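Encode chain A's predicted structure.
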Amino acid sequence: MIGGEKGTGSKGRREHGGGKLGLRYVAKYVRKYGLPFVFGFLLVLGEALCDLLQPTIMSRIVDEGVATKNLTTVFHFGGLMLLVTAAGALAASGRNIVASRVSQSFGAELRSDLFRKIQTLALSSIDRFDRASLVTRLTNDVTQVQNFVNGMMRIFAKAPMLCIGSLIMAARLNPHLAVILVIVVPVVGLLIALNMKVGFPLFTKVQSAMDRLNGAMREYLSGVRVVKAFNRFDYEVDKFGKINDEYQMRSTTALRAMAVFNPAIALAVNLGIVAVVWLGGVRVDAGRMQVGHVIAFVNYMTQILFSLMMISMVFTMFVRAKASAGRIAEVLAAESGASWNPAASLPPGGKGRIDFVDVSFAYDGPSGPPALRSINLTCLPGERIGIIGSTGSGKSTLVSLIPRFYDATEGSVRIDDVDIRELDPRLLREKVAIVPQQTVLFSGTILDNIRWGKEDATEAEVEQAARTAAAHDFIAALPDGYRTRLGQGGAGLSGGQKQRVSIARALVRKPDILILDDCTSALDATTEAAIKESLRTYARGLTCLLIAQRITSVIDMDRIVVLDDGAIAGIGTHDELMAGCRVYREIYRSQIGKEVEQHAAGT
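Encoded structure for chain A:
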C-alpha cells in the first residue's frame, strides 16, 4: 500500500499548510517538551547567576581582604566563591544532561513526523520536491534545527542572561564607567543585526547546494551499472566535482561573511575593556575608585564580551536553523492531496467493477497539458482487460488513477459504483494490487518482500503466489530459499526474477482489482505464457488490467483498450480491433505483421 493518508474528519477538508499548521505543529512539541525545557532554562539561569556573583565576590576579596591584609575576610569570601563555583558547575552539568535528552528526543520525533508527512503526500505533491531535497530535509535540515534547540538550552539562553546581568552589575558597581557600555553595546547590536541580514540568504543557498550534492550522488548510485558499462567515470567525476565545488564555494562565502562579525564584536568589546582599564586607572590614582572595582568591572566586560560572542554565534546558528526550518515547513505545509468521506465504504458484495466516467487528467492541474482526455471505460469483475498504446499514450497514467495515486482533473473514477474520491485511500488500496512498471524490491528476505502484499500471509500462501508468478522454482533453488536476503533494490536477482517476485507480492494480497503495468517486459515468451496461464485461473472473478508494450501480451485478453495521445482509440477483442481500429492495426503491423509478411514471401 502506498501512502498512508490520515482522515480529515469531514468530506472535502484537506490538511493545509501555513500558519495554523505551523502553530499546531509547534504546540505539539511545546506540550511534550515544555516542562523539561523550562527546567533546563532554570538551570541555565542558576549557572548565569553564579557567574555574575563571582566578579563582585572577587572585588570584595581585593578591596576588603587583600587591601587590608585581612586573611579572615579573604578566606571567608574565597570559600563563598568556591561554593558559588560548585553550584554553577552542578547547574551546568544538569542543563547539559537535560538539553541533550530534550534536543535528541525532539530531533528524532521531528524526523519521524516529517517522514510520516512525506508518506501522507499524494504523488502530485511529492513530485514537487526533488527526492534528494527530501533526504536533505530529513537529515541535515532536521539536524540544524535540533542543534539550535540544544544550544538554546545550553549556551544560547545563558548569553542574554549573562549580558544583561553583567550590564546591571557593572552599572551598580560604578555608574561612571557604565557610560562605556552605553557606547559599546549598540555598536555590537548593530553588528549582530547585520550578521542576520547577510547570513540568512547565504545559508539558504548553502542548503540548496547540498540538495544538488545529494542529488548527484543519488543519481550516480542508482545508475552505477550504466556508468561502468559506458566508462563514464571521468564524466561523473567532473559533474560531481562541479557540484561539490559549488557547495564549497557557497559554504565558504557564507562562513567568510560570518567570520567578519565575530572579530568585529570582539574588537568593539576589547576597546571597551581598554577604556575601562584606562579610565579606571585614572580614577584609582585620583582616589575616587577602588582597585577591586576596576578588576570586577573588567571581569564584567569580559563576561559581556563572552556573552555577545555567544549571541553572535546564536544568531549565526539561528540563521542556519531558520533556513532549515523553512525548508522543513514547506514539506509539513504541503497538502496531503487526498480528501474523503469517512462514512463512505465499498458495498459488501462488490467484486471490483471499475468505471471511468468522462475522465480527463493533467499532471500540472486543469491548466496543464492533458495526459488523459475524456476516458469512458467500464471494466467488469472477472474480466481481463489489456491496455496497449505507444509510449506516452497514457497507459500507466490511466491505471494510476485507480488507487488514487493521482485524482482525475475532470470526471470520476468509480469502484463498485462508488466515487473513489469518497473513499479512504487505505480502504481503497486494500482492494487493489499493482505490479509497477519499474520493479521495486526492498532490503530483506524474499519472504519479507512477498509479504509486503499481505503482512500476515502464511508461508503456504506465499509459496502459492510465487508458483502462480513462476517464481517458486528459482527461489527454491537459492541456498536459503525464501529466506534469501536481498540487497537494496533486489540486488542479487536478475530483472526477470525481480519482476516475478513483484508479481507474487501483488498476488498474495488476493485483491479485487489486479493491475499489471508492463511487468513482464524482462521475461522470455515461455515464462510470460506460463504466468498468463496461471493468472487465467487465479484471476477468475477479479478485475485484471494488463498494460503491455508487446501486442502478443494482450492479444488473448477478453477486451483490449487502445490508447493514443491520452484518448481511447478503440475497445474490443483482437479481431474486432483489427477490423475497426487503425491505431491497433498499425501496432500489430509494426510488431508482428511485417514478420508474417516476410515469412509468407519467403515461402
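The two ends are 53 Å apart (CA to CA).
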